[in-house]
Amino acid sequence: MANNGENPSPDVGGKTVKLKADDGEIFEVEEAVAMELQTVKSFFDDDGVSYDTVVPLLNVSSTALAKVIQYCRRAVELRAKSGDDEGANEKAREEREGLEAELVREESDEGIKELILAANYLNIKDMLSFLCRAVGDRIKNKSVEYVRRFFVLENDFSPEEEERTRNEVAWAFEGVDAD
Amino acid sequence: MLGCRSTLYQTMKRKKNKSKNTRNKTTKRTVSKTRNSISKKQESPHKEEYEEEEEEDTELGFSLKTSAAPSHTHGVQPLGNLYLNPGSVNSRNTGLGNLQTLTDELVLDILGLLGASHLGVLATVSKSFCVFANHEPLWRNLVLESVNNGFLYNGSWKFTYIVAHYPSFDVSSTGVSGLRVRDFYSDYLFQSWLCANLEMKPEWLERDNIIRRKGISVDEFVLNFEEPNKPVLLEGCMDNWVAYEKWDRDYLVQLCGDVRFSVGPVEMKLEEYFRYSDQAREERPLYLFDPKFAEKVPKLGLEYEVPMYFQEDLFSVLGYERPDYRWIIIGPAGSGSSFHIDPNSTSAWNAVIKGSKKWVLFPPDLIPPGVHPSPDGAEVACPVSIIEWFMNFYMTTKTWKKKPIECICKAGEVIFVPNGWWHLVINLEESIAITQNYASRRNLLNVLDFLRRPNAHTLVSGTRDRVNLYDKFKNAIETSLPGTIDELVQKAEEKKAQQKKLSFWDSVADSKVGAFKFSF
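Above: the input entities. Below: the structure tokens describing the complete assembly.
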């Protein structure tokens, strides 16, 4: 089931689709998984585009694409497991949340950002959703300085501006880490 | 085809109440290319012009609402200005750090997942974060999610939130306007402000091509409009209405100011709603749209009558189990509904009691520009607000052969919206209206078809018992009006056969001679 290669070979018998990352690397992916990427789906929804066409994904790196494919593959499997059974649904949902948490935990801040851009370009709603949440989680209840370091930016307020802004939101600072 | 796309664009269910989105995802915005020059440049007749924000008077080529701020609250400028300022740095980017390559929509999506205190803290990180974190729609969502019983609008959504949740905090010391930031360029945020403050342009209101009728008989209406499914504007139907004579804001507040009505996802007091609608400057103002107004305030239900053309109301066979069918609609200038088709394949009438509404209607087979229905029709992706639709898409219809039907419906007038027609409505001033949806024998078969669809449980609207509505309704019709459905089916089949015959013989007739044609 788990396939660690960057170019996993497709299951026997299923239709596959070829996706090309920005560095030219080709990923051959099961059709059902490829269709999770709405951008790819739209590409084929156009009349006259044959499934043999290689889909050029110029804005996605191969590292990001590999992870996206890995996630979508698992997501498709989990969805197949769930059905009318409440219990099976619940279990599948928990597994998917576990998968998302794992993916997020392993990622560096740069990595998360790269994945968000990829998920956005490829139009994968679920993935984008939990990635955005992940970023939010990483900066919640953190001090202002922490957030600045996290996003690598300078404080560009003048002292007066900063004081004024601070005053406006003084109510928000209860429960936040001290600078 | 492939392209950059903001995923979490706002999708709209095919329901009447557009403002029922509890969590408004950041809207996909069609950033108009016209907003790219400052006043000194004149590149093409279509480009709108405006001056740099330093100057007090922002000349936009549009007119702003009289109460609008002269420029974006925080001084946000469109990207075009940046390109004309060589050497200028965009503080949006420097202030976002390695978030800067994300689109504005994504940044707002991330912020949209945070709580109020997190947003507040983020506002002090950098000027860029300050601008983003103060984006009013974020605070609107926070307010609407945290209150069920309504809210007391206080100058801005952010202040409304603070006052409600941190009552001991003294907002008066800070002032509403907030920090002004130089060198912040963002098309998305600028356009968001623009759309909230724009007035309707005169050329959007010029075309009025609907048929108007006064005093026609019910038969004439059915024959000329309901049967052929054509819209019409009917005059003189409300002359006897107490509502037409009496209803205005003061009367309603006096009668039921403290009654809670449906406003988007919340129920709030009428007088509080007016407090909001007086103050708010928004791209998508909240709309009061209540399907239980006559139950809440019976007097309201007694002060109007269903016009004679619409007395046939087949869902009434279901009694109390009928889906929602009548609404009172109250909203400020700029409020309304963007393109949608009414649910359950019903037809509708809309009577303006006070104020005026601009309507744009497209027939069922002609999808309005900028609208993307999903294949099963369950969702209508309407990425733009009403104002933005006018800004970016309205003019394209001028070149179409099949033009939409348009009109301004004024107080005392009733518009008939045939089933299946796309329509968009915008209030040109504060308006009060009543609307009802119905099934008559003319659209009964369509309604039944709709209710019978396999994904009925998502599509069917206005009732909690969606899956069974088809069975219930069909049985109730058979009981109350036996044989009606069969009769209509037969008529429909005859009509189809007729049309087939005619077109066959049309093709047989010799077009050169032209004279002789069979007719049945």
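Note for the figure: Chain B has 20 helices and 18 strands.
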